[in-house]
Amino acid sequence: MRDQNIGLIGAGAIGQTHISTLDCLPGFRLAAIADPGPATAAIAESSQASWFAAYRDMLEKCELDGVIVATPNELHVDVCIDCLERGCRYCWKSRSPTRWPTPCAWLRPASGSVYRYWWAITGVTIR
After folding, report:
1. CA angle at residue 91 from 9 to 68, to 5 degrees?
2. How does DSSP classify residue 123?
3. Which residues pair with 52 in a beta bridge?
4. Tell me: the pLDDT tens digits for 96-123?
5. Measured CA distances, 55 to 8, 25, 67, 74, 122 (Å)
6. Could you tell me which residues come within 8 angstroms of residue 75 by beta carbon, excluding any fewer than 6 positions away?
């Protein structure tokens, strides 16, 4: 079985924690990082991942199995919808989006699709 290609959206302090976590998980490969920050290209190069300033460019140009969203909380819902609608099977978050009080919610974007969205309190949980 091939490694799962994972994209990371947001390479700040939380995003870099996710990079370290992915390095320890067999079967998963950090394939791409999207973040407009000036240091992100170097972070991606050191992780042997592709770098994109805009996450939508990453989603269009990379075949990703899943995405870890490490953006500011108010962007979580919209970013996850974009990822799921572009074919990512997984969208992980380590904190709840500010819009939801529970660990599970249904996303209903304009396209009419319905997605189940989960978040984990203690970080990325992969089974």
Report:
1. 30
2. S
3. 34
4. 444 444 444 444 445 555 444 444 433 4
5. 9, 23, 10, 16, 24
6. 69
What 3-state class would DSSP assign to 91? Answer: strand
Q: Is the pTM of this model over 0.85?
A: no
Q: Which residues contact 38 (CB under 8 A, 6 or more apart)?
A: none
| Interstrand relation of 115-118 and 104-107 (parallel, antiparallel or unpaired) | antiparallel
CATH number at residue 45: 3.40.50.720
Are 31 and 49 within 8 A, CB to CB? yes
The domain containing residue 25 runs over which residues? 4-118
For residue 28, what are the CA distances in angstroms to 4, 60, 100?
Answer: 5, 20, 28
What's the number of domains the chain is made of? 1
